[in-house]
Amino acid sequence: MKVIILGTGTSQGVPVIGCGCETCNSKNPKDKRTRTSVYIKVNNSNLLIDTSVDFRQQMLRNNITDIDSVLYTHHHVDHIFGMDDLRQITQRLDKRIDIYGREDTLNELRVTFRYVFDKQLIKHKSVPIVKFHNKTNKKFKAGDTEILPIEVHHGNIKIFGYRINDFAYITDASAIDEKELKKLKGLKALIINALRIRPHPTHFNLHQAIEISKSVNPEKTYFTHLTHDILHDKINKTLPKGIELAYDGLEINL
Given this model, what pLDDT does residue 64 score? Predict the structure, then answer.
């Protein structure tokens, strides 16, 4: 199983337009953050979690040419707006891509990308050829891979993280109920959001993310969905053993 962290930035990305802070001016490539997404190669399947605004750039940069399934965490812009670029895959490989997510997420996708369901456009393959699969908080399979949703709070809405084998991915969480935390026991790798140093109403900050990591005790934790408040090298060296900041292009082999 191979995981490639495609993007580690928040909805604004890093650098932020017009900002002159230390992180935005940093020459360290680990401080250049496209919007959050992750690619997973497992059981001969190519899985993607979220189609970020920067999806096309991320695919090209990491030389990824095929996707079989997309697992959506939720419907906010930075996590879905790259969906149209799936058509480059469905056209070239003459295939369908399976889309999985919560009912509210899929309903929002149907509105945002309503042209995808136009029968004439589908006939000419000028839109992504996709099939939606509405999922509740129960195990399901994407192809031959078992997926375990992790239901988390993102402010006042509920969204999904996902566990696949000994790997779990959670982004945009602000709280996780105890019964969902139990699903994260025994992990080899956890990727979880750690927005910034200061508290935030709808995302874990750095301290909260550290506490979540300690409570589930994975072998390794990587923090993602990072704002420009987080200067990579400065913050990374302060983190507890077994925890580090993720960066765009980081590969994890499990």
Answer: 98
pTM (global) more than 0.85: yes
Write the DSSP string, 68-107: SEEE-S---HHHHTTGGGGHHHHHHHT--EEEEE-HHHHH
* C-alpha distances in Å from residue 9, one per residue of 32, 141, 150, 225: 8, 28, 21, 5
H or E, element range at 108: helix 103-112
Alpha carbons 156 and 167: distance in angstroms, whole number: 26
Task: Label residue 211 exposed, middle or buried (CB < 10 Å: 0-12, 13-18, 19+).
Answer: exposed
Domains present along the chain, CATH in parentheses: 2-253 (3.60.15.10)
Look-up of token digits 């001016």 = 25
Residue 161 β-bridge partners: 150
**pLDDT tens by residue, 95-134:** 999 999 999 999 999 999 999 999 999 999 999 999 999 9
